[in-house]
Amino acid sequence: MLTKSRRKTPMRVSRLTKIAGLTAATLALLAGSAVAQGVEENETERSVAESETELSKVSRQLVKIDQRINAVEKQAMLDSEPMEAEATYVEELKKAAIEKHPEVREKLERQEELISELKGDPELNMPPENRSEEFAEKLDEFKGLRDEINPVVQSVSSDPEVRESYQAFQETVVKKMKELEPQTEELLAQRAELADRFQELSGGAR
Question: Is the overall model pTM greater than 0.85, yes or no?
Answer without folding.
Answer: no
